[in-house]
Structures are given as C-alpha cells and as structure tokens.
Amino acid sequence: MPTTTRPRPMFGMLDGYRPITNLLGAGDPNINKIDDRWWLFFGGFQRNFRNNLFSASLPKGAHPGENLDFRISTDPARPTTALPLVEQPEKGEWDHYGLHEPCFVHGMRRTPQGDQVPCRRIYYTGRSSRTTTGNDAPFAIGFLEHTPDGWRRHPEPVIVGDSRNPSALGPKVIFADGKWRMWFRAAPGEPAKGDTPVAEIHYTESEDGISGWTPPRPFHSRADGFAHAYVLETASRYEMLLSPTPNLFGEAHYPPQGLWLSTSATPSGDVRDWSTPQAVLDAAEGPAWLRNGVLGSSLCAEGDPDSAGLRHVFLTGVHSSINWPTYALKRLASLRRPPVPAPFYFTIGYCALDLDHG
What we know:
Glyco_hydro_beta-prop_sf
C-alpha cells in the first residue's frame, strides 16, 4: 500500500502571509516545473474581497519536498504586495468576483498560418457571485494564456454548467494524444452551511482547448462523492488524485475527508478504464490544519530514476472548526496577532506519497 508522510503546513490564514499584506487567504496550489524552476499557482482572497490567481516559486535548482520555501511573486514596486497574474476582470464580467482553482498546462495550439506551436495555459474557475458558498450565480471555467507580454485572460468562459448542474468548477486539464482533456466538477453550486454537498466529476475534450468541447459526460457520479480530480501524466501511466467536497464548517453530514489515488494506462474519459480509488490520506487522522478536509490538490513527479515512485503532493487543508473569540484571546495572551475573523481557515501544505510501497 502507498505510504504518505505526515502533511506539513507551508502558509495559511491563521498565521497570515507576512510580509505579504494584500492576501487574506490562499488555496488550490497547482505545482508545475516550468523551464528550470518549480512554481505554485494558487488562488488568493484579497483585502478587496475578490479572488485572483497568484504564483510562488522555489529558487532555481531547488526541489519540492527538500525545500518548501516558496516565495510569493510580488509587485516590483511594492515588495509586500502579492502580484496577481492578471488584472481583476471589470465589473459585469463573468469572473469579476473571483478567479479560483488554477490548473497550468503545457500544450499545443494552431497559429493563424496553420502551424502547431507550444503554448502555456492556466484553466481556472470564474465567479460572478459575490459569495463563494451558497452562491447566487453559477461558476464557469475559463483560461489564461501566456504571451510575450505575460498572462492574457481569454474574455469568455469555455465551459459552463447545465440545468442539472448550473456550475462548472475545478478544471483539471492535461494535453495528451493531441487533445486538451478536462475533468471538472459539475455541481448546483458551492454548498452553504447546512447544505448537503452535491458534486459529480465530468469529462470533456477539445482539439484546441477553447471551442468544440465534446458534450461533458459523467466520470464519477454523485454517489461516488468526489469533487476534485487532478490528473498527472507520468512516464508509464496516468494518475488521478481525488478528494470530496471539503467539510468547511465541520458538519456531521459530510463524507469522510482525505485523498484517494486512481491510475490508468491511458488518459481515458471513461472511469471504467481507471483503477478503483485507493485512500492515501485520512484527514481525520492528520494535523488540525486539515482535519475538516482537503481541496485543490495537485501532485508532481521529478523524473529521477532513483525516486520513480515518489510523488510530491500540494494541497489545501481546512482547519478543524475553531471558536474565533476564544482562539483570538489565546493568541493575544501569547503576544501573537489574532487571525482575521473568518467562517473557516485554509492552509496550503505538502506531503510526500511513496508509491513503491503499493
């Protein structure tokens, strides 16, 4: 059976993000090696109460796991201000209130001259609702594309919901066998406190990753209980890291929280081609900072033959429910700054997964 190291926190809401001053929260870490450096893309909740996408990186030559000192990219003129990848969309845009759940992809696109050239994209969840839970408008999926002038936001969503599941969220995208392939969460919306979580994983594919997406088909049903499905291509197979809707408010009617792993020989959109998901992390047995659940996880492999079975997992943990006034008084008594009042608290963290024991 695969073994998982005890998760380690990197940065979270309870302790803040100093010296960064414009972020109240951060989550959904997406790990990628770009050129010769490791990068985390993540969603950040800003002091203007809107979400955007941000990045952090390791020093050149550093490896994830050995070094977790990811530095958040900042505005050159304001070193304490985290720099968003793109400007906040204008009021009235479909994603004005938030860009969430980034997924970076190396792929290919066709130029106006008909040539196939490499490209880099980040697919994300967009929010037009003021609220993130119990939302009053559906979520949809869009993307950014990297250009010589930096990241450029595609103006329209590429995947939207339907009458059964008005919201499309959590895009997990790979480029394989000449196609853009997406697994995403189809749901009525983000559940508010007291709601029963409802989610399905759907699959769709496209030749150009923008239009012509095939009609989304169910992959994991509502009965399976999964809400997030991150896919990694390795040298010999495809691996999928799964998790359910996180138990943000610590409610008794939620499913068990943690991470599961499934594998396939091909990038199939048919769940029957994937192995039965195997539990690799039990949140209830973990540290307090993830005991209410895990979301927005990603994993990577370094390609070192000596560590072929090692996976680096980056995740968002939801802290076990706390009483803010009591917690704040304890912090003040120990001469520590109390956290920002919030209904729940996220922490970005890391664990290693050793598949050689599988």
